[in-house]
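Note to self: keep these together.
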Amino acid sequence: MGRTDVTRLIGLLTAATVAGASLVAGAEPGEAVTPAQTTLTTIPSDPYRLSDNGTFDTYGERIAGLETRVTQASAAEVFADANREARGLCHATGVTGATGFCWNSGDDGTPEWYPQGITASWDATGDGSYAGHRAILVSWYNTDDKGVRVSFVDYDDPAAPRYRHVLLVEPTSTDDFRAVNIHAGGLAWYGDHLYVVDTSRGIRVFDLRTVWRTEGDASKDRIGLGSDGRYYAHDYRYVVPQVGAYTQTGGCVRPPDSLDQPLCYSYLAVDRSTSPPSLLTGEYYDGVPGARLVRWLLDTDTGLLTVDSAGTVAADAAYRSPHTNLQGAVSHDDTFLMVRSRGRNTGGLLYRGQVGVASSSSALPIGPEDISYEADSGRAWTHTEYPGSRVVFSVPDAMG
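Structure:
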């Protein structure tokens, strides 16, 4: 049977089987198939590559021009200017020993913004603080094309967190910018850089050393350069501009017909246990198992992804999950935590597994999303997305 025929067979089996089908661990993409896998398996990482395509230079030129026109600020100023107070754990998590907080009532209930990605200062630095703060960042996407906002949560005092929303923007020229209209399903913070997944393309990069202050706007409609020569951001007072991007060739399909097809970038997390530290990206498949988890090494000198001699970012490792509907995944040492959602009426699940070992699971509340691991405390942090029941919380002893 030729490669094309096998690839077609894989696609048919995946679509037709309730439990899904998977390739044999370690097999070449498009070769043998076997009944649905029950454990996390390794797969070849060779097909997965990213490139910055000169975006860091392009955005660098635009940012240099804009910084002669905008009001510059800093991450430290954002934390100091926090204008919202979080509440204690106002919604039940069902997790024994959970810690965390709820957003204020307006953010808890808004149908216009949905929280998605989560990362924290323990991902960013070795000592777990950034700009003098212990902090949590959460991304939200807007339902009316007003972009992506990130909540900068000052978590110095867990009993009284304070936060402010900041809008992510993309420089379009040396004198203007626009909102970043993506789903922002995953967020990762390493050093000064904030990584945000762009589902079919790859990963967008922002630098927290570059923060701009913008004007208030009661209409909440203006973005970028206004007719009055001032800069606006849908009434958000701070923006962080995109500084680069890592993209793949071709868009993604969920699920793919074969493992060598482009990835979907649904979520990501930092793993500081690898040497060097790495990012783990993953896919969301609705009702179908087999999501690919892919590891990308970080350069500890630059805080960016490691580029090979060919000028590309080559995946360091890749895995395939037996679980469906994954919204987040993080790894530490040899253990993987994977978050599964099960709709608006059923609680989610947290899977704990290793390659070749059946996963255990524990209950999460309805609507769990991305995940971050705080190694010093052994807690995994996640959060829920649905209006009226949003909570940011930690799971103790998460890695077992």
